[in-house]
Structure formats: C-alpha cells, structure tokens
Design brief:
By secondary structure, the protein is an alpha+beta fold. The chain has a single domain, classed as Lipoprotein localisation LolA/LolB/LppX (outer membrane lipoprotein receptor (LolB), chain A, Clam), CATH 2.50.20.10. It is about 15% helix and about 45% strand. Strands 6-5-4-3-2-1-11-10-9-8-7 form an 11-stranded antiparallel sheet. The termini are far apart.
C-alpha cells in the first residue's frame, strides 16, 4: 500500500459518505485582552482535543474525526478515524521525529511532521502550526500578520507560513478562550489546500490517558 493512499483512505474516501459534522454551538468571547491570553495560552502544553477535520485540495476532498493528545511541547499523538470503519491513521510526534502508522500496520518516519505530510500527499497539512493555532496563538518559529480582528479584540484572520488562518469561533474553557472552529487555506500556483477544523471537546491538563478520554468543556 502506498502511504499517500493510506492517508487518503482515511481522509478522502471517508468524504464519499453523506455524513456531515454534528453542529456545535460555541459561546462568543467578548472584551478580553489578547496579549494577556497569549501569555496564558503559551503555558498550556498538555491537552486533548476531539473533533472533525475536512481537507479539500484541487483534486480530492474528504473528512475524518480526530483526537489530538498533546503531552508536552514536543510529544503528541493524533488519531484520524474514518467513519464506517474505513480506516484509522496514527501520527505520533516526539522530540526526535514523527511517525505515521496506518490501520494495516504500514509505517513511515521523518524528522518533521509537515515534511512527512508533504511526502505522503504532495501537499502540506500544517500540523506543526495547528498545535498553536488551536490555542489561538501564532507559531513562534516564524513571522505572522493579523489582518482582521474581532470586536472582542481577538484575531479573526492571521497569515503565517503561507497559510490564511480564520478563527471562526472562540470558546471559553475556564480561564482559557480557545479556538472552536478554524478555516485554514493555502493557495499557490502549484498548491491549493483548504482545511476546516471543528473542535467539539477540550480536555486541559490533568492525567491524559492513551485512550484519549474525552471531557466536554463546561
């Protein structure tokens, strides 16, 4: 099995079904200081999120459920789950590199997760940036620009590393105000990728188990 086909089997073949994401209602965030929130969110390095991701390229498109367990700044597990038992892919990131394992047991390794996605598919999936964007933060490794702001004072549209990140919804989780829905796209002459992420659940801190226990935010 080709590795590109393995990942497409989870993300794209699942898109052939008529299943749509379950609607999720998010609270609006108002009158908060984004600079203060950045300092708070930078300290948040242990969490679990659960939701749905959809990807559309020039030639393919599809969606999958996902669970992302972030252990610390460098270590994480991402599980992509296709509906109707179509397949599961596990992406495991560690300080010394990243691996991808399909439901059939095929494995692939690289030193960088974004490079691995490029090798697999011929297009990029910005996993390294998403680690920060889901927390409403710019990735610290490169320059960014906020082109639109919400009335609340939070970013609405951010440009970074060739990606346009639109924060459609924020949600309050205790003292944190994190992303609930993101639209991310990249359009160049040889690369067109549209990524949409809906986050249904956040679990912050505490003991995170390997079964990716889901905790609904209050």
């Amino acid at each position: 099995m080709k590795f590109s086909n393995a990942l497409i089997g989870v993300l794209f073949l699942s898109g052939l079904s008529a299943c749509a994401p379950t609607p999720v209602k998010f609270e609006n965030v108002v009158d908060l200081n984004w600079q203060q929130q950045q300092l708070l969110h930078q300290q948040l390095q242990s969490w679990v999120i659960n939701g749905r991701i959809s990807i559309q390229t020039e030639y393919d498109g599809g969606q999958a459920d996902f669970t992302w367990q972030q252990h610390n700044l460098t270590d994480y597990n991402i599980r992509l789950i296709a509906p109707m038992g179509a397949g599961t892919t596990l992406i495991k990131g560690r300080a010394d590199g990243v691996s991808l394992t399909t439901s059939s047991g095929d494995e692939m390794h690289d030193t960088n997760v974004d490079k691995l996605m490029q090798r697999l598919n011929g297009w990029r999936l910005p996993v390294s940036g998403l680690q920060y964007w889901v927390r409403g933060l710019p990735a610290p490794s490169s320059a960014f620009e906020i082109t639109q702001w919400k009335e609340s004072g939070f970013p609405e549209v951010m440009l970074q590393d060739g990606w346009r990140i639109e924060f459609k919804k924020y949600k309050a989780y205790g003292n944190y105000h994190l992303a609930g829905k993101l639209f991310i796209n990249r359009q160049k002459a040889d690369e067109e990728v549209d990524v949409r992420v809906i986050i249904r659940h956040w679990s912050i801190g505490g003991e995170l188990n390997t079964d990716f226990k889901k905790v609904r935010a209050q």
